[in-house]
């Protein structure tokens, strides 16, 4: 029961971290999750956690590395393979030696073998941290390819080096030849084992599909099962590196996702969704666990009166400086020695190349793998005596992890800032990509019953893409977005005035008055809902404004229900049908469009807005007005349009999910994600008219 409670608490912390990160965009999500884990570990109701390193590697690292290897840019990985392998093997060994001898010299109480073990544990970079940190930094494809490639391969070198250093510390003997031989066997053997399993998996998946035995459920289960099977069989049966087996197989397995047909599309959509949820949950759980373990790992040494706290801090700073300096020198040297692909000549180190070296230096943050290795240090030596300085070694490793994570979070955006931020061309291209992915997912959800409604929604997305392509290169997209918001405000003001005028009129029948009121209130709720989501620039009273808006919407709906109930009881007026309300709401919307169009013509004679923006928005409103007027038999289409509106609401959820996935994957920045989410709500009213 305690384990189940721990799992629930970790998942709750992961969900909470995703909300908190929205309010502090300059702090990366992993740091937020580490802080939450540290806070949670001090709460009385939060279960205690004891990290089992082997279980941690199987449950978290294996599936995450497998997914990372499967989704990595293979062409970029091949181009940067030499540099990635030099970092994964050469730098890991060099760091192990440099940290070991320096730490032993600074603090002679720590045996050389134990110091070398710490150096080996600090060799691997954290694949999760590499993917999650620096989302606000503009890393090139080559830089990300090198960092991700290194994180895929350096776990094996770090783990093997750590194991042999610990064995030397326990027994007092270190056999270099034997260690090197076993390292080669583990490294190459793991890669070959993973390739062999990958070949078998590809053949098996293709055979099952060709025989017609495949279902979405069986395919997803096989995909999820594969990384765990790979790791355990490599470690327990073949006695080679399970990490390398998982990575090499992930690079090779393709799941045969290249087929056509609705079943393949549905399987791919479900697979991407499942892996997306699993990846985010496991990523978050890794950092939550790290935050939970750090206070306990560091508290033992910090509270020990026999150990100087100042000495601990100085050692952490010294070891961090060695790790960073070694990495910078190594990366710079490799960049200087690397030959140009086209000319075959070595290139000089320009300012841009020095900056690239700095980016790849601070991008190599340490993480939970380092800490999990340190927790495997035994408590006693082979002669029965306590392992010397065990708690202090764990403390130093924890401190270096924190230092490297902080440097990656705050220095990477300074060294490699996003150029242009939300430039028009870049934002339009990103928006088009979001719309394209949304259309792909909607296409996979077409059935005989909803075909017409889904195609109507897809058509509205296609028109948005066409308008965006025509608008590529437009200046000041923020100004255009503000004009869209103001136009919605004009619509709102028009409908409110019309609603107030209708309530005060006495020259119309009760039935016509009720119809007009319900149509205006329906359209007003729709406009206000969009404004509440997109008007993020209010500096004061924003929360109160949103609460008041929702209360007014609830009040309008309540009064509508009361009015309908009263009419039914008194039988004074016939009840209004959905077709009538829908048709009249569209007529009110047409009048609102006419009002906004006239207002835009007036604004073009002033200097308040950019004339090009007014012209572009005029075209959008003209298209929306034409779509409404051209619709035949509007009063009889409530059922079809109602179904289309359900699909449209589902498409908005898909679009927002695509944006969140792109932010989480680092394809776009958080600022771009915020702008895209706001644009979804801006377009929701326009899309209503285009259905």
What does the secondary structure layout of this molecule look like, with pairings?
Elements: H1 2-23, H2 29-41, H3 53-71, H4 74-79, H5 81-106, H6 112-121, H7 127-132, H8 141-171, H9 176-210, H10 216-238, H11 242-252, H12 262-302, H13 309-337, H14 351-362, H15 368-374, H16 390-415, H17 424-443, H18 451-470, H19 477-504, H20 510-534, H21 542-570, H22 578-604, H23 611-629, H24 638-664, H25 670-690
Helix pairs in contact: 1-2, 1-12, 2-12, 3-10, 3-11, 3-12, 5-6, 5-8, 5-13, 6-8, 8-9, 8-11, 9-10, 9-11, 10-11, 10-12, 12-16, 13-14, 13-16, 14-16, 15-16, 17-18, 17-24, 18-24, 19-20, 19-22, 20-21, 20-22, 20-25, 22-23, 23-25, 24-25
Description:
GO terms for molecular function: potassium:proton antiporter activity; sodium:proton antiporter activity. The chain has 691 residues and is mainly α. It has two domains: 52-271 and 292-415, Na+/H+ antiporter like fold (Up-down Bundle), CATH 1.20.1530.20; 424-690, no CATH class. The protein is 77% helix and 0% strand. The protein contains 25 helices and no strands. It has helices at 2-23, 29-41, 53-71, 74-79, 81-106, 112-121, 127-132, 141-171, 176-210, 216-238, 242-252, 262-302, 309-337, 351-362, 368-374, 390-415, 424-443, 451-470, 477-504, 510-534, 542-570, 578-604, 611-629, 638-664, 670-690. Helix 3 runs parallel beside helix 11 (242-252) and helix 23 (611-629) runs parallel beside helix 25. The model is unreliable at 537-543 and 685-691 (pLDDT under 50).
């Amino acid at each position: 029961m305690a384990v189940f409670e721990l799992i629930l608490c970790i998942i709750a912390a992961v969900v909470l971290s995703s909300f908190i990160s929205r309010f502090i965009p300059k702090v990366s999500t992993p740091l937020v999750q580490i802080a939450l884990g540290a806070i949670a570990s001090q709460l009385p109701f939060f279960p205690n956690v004891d990290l089992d390193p082997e279980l941690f590697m199987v449950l978290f690292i294996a599936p995450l590395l497998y997914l990372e290897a499967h989704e990595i840019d293979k062409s970029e990985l091949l181009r940067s393979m030499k540099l990635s392998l030099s970092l994964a093997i050469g730098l890991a060994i060099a760091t192990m030696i440099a940290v070991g001898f320096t730490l032993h010299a600074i603090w002679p109480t720590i045996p050389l073998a134990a110091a070398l073990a710490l150096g080996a544990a600090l060799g691997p970079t954290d694949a999760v941290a590499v993917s999650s940190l620096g989302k606000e930094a503009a890393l090139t494809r080559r830089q990300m390819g090198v960092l991700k490639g290194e994180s895929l391969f350096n776990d094996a070198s770090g783990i093997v080096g750590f194991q042999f250093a610990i064995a030397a510390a326990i027994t007092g003997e270190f056999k270099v030849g034997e260690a090197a031989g076993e390292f080669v066997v583990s490294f190459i053997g793991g890669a070959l084992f993973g390739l062999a399993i990958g070949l078998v998996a590809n053949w098996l998946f293709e055979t099952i599909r060709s025989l017609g035995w495949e279902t979405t459920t069986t395919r997803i289960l096989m995909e999820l099962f594969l990384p765990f099977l790979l790791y355990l069989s490599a470690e327990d049966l073949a006695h080679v590196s399970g990490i390398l087996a998982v990575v090499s197989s992930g690079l090779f397995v393709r799941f045969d996702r290249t087929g056509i047909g609705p079943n393949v599309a549905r399987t791919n959509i479900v697979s991407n969704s499942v892996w997306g949820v699993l990846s985010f949950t496991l990523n978050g759980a890794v950092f939550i666990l790290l935050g939970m373990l750090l206070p306990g790992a560091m508290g033992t040494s910090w509270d020990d009166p026999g150990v100087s706290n100042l000495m601990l801090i100085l050692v952490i700073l010294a070891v961090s400086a060695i790790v960073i300096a070694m990495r910078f020198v190594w990366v710079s040297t490799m960049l200087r020695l690397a030959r140009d692909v086209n000319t075959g000549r070595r290139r000089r180190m320009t300012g841009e190349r020095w900056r690239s070296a700095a980016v790849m230096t601070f991008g190599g943050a340490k993480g939970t793998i380092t800490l999990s290795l340190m927790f495997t240090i035994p408590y006693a030596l082979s002669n029965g005596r306590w392992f010397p300085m065990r708690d202090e070694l764990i403390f130093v490793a924890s401190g270096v992890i924190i230092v490297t994570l902080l440097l990656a979070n705050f220095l990477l955006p300074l060294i490699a800032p996003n150029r242009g931020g939300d430039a028009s061309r870049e934002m339009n291209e990103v928006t088009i990509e979001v719309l394209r992915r949304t259309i792909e997912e909607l296409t996979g959800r077409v059935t005989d019953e909803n075909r017409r409604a889904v195609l109507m929604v897809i058509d509205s997305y296609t028109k948005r893409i066409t308008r965006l392509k025509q608008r590529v290169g437009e200046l000041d997209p923020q100004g255009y977005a503000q004009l869209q918001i103001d136009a919605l405000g004009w619509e709102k003001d028009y409908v409110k005035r019309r609603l107030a005028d209708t309530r005060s009129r006495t020259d119309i029948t009760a039935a016509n008055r009720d119809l007009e009121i319900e149509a205006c209130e329906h359209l007003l709720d729709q406009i206000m809902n969009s404004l509440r989501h997109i008007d993020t620039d209010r500096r004061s009273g924003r929360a109160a404004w949103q609460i008041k808006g929702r209360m007014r919407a609830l009040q309008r709906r309540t009064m509508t229900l009361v009015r309908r109930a009263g009419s039914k009881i008194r039988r004074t007026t016939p009840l209004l049908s959905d077709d009538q309300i829908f048709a009249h709401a569209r007529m009110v919307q047409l009048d609102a469009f006419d009002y906004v169009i006239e207002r835009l013509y007036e604004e073009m004679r002033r200097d308040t807005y950019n004339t090009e923006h007014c012209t572009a928005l005029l075209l959008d409103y003209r298209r929306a007005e034409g779509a409404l007027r051209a619709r035949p038999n509007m009063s009889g289409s409530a059922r079809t349009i109602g179904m289309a509106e359900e699909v449209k609401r589902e498409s908005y959820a898909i679009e927002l999910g695509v944006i969140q996935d792109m932010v989480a994957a680092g394809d776009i920045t958080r600022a771009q994600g915020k702008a895209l989410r706001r644009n979804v709500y801006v377009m929701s009213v326009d899309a209503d008219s285009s259905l």
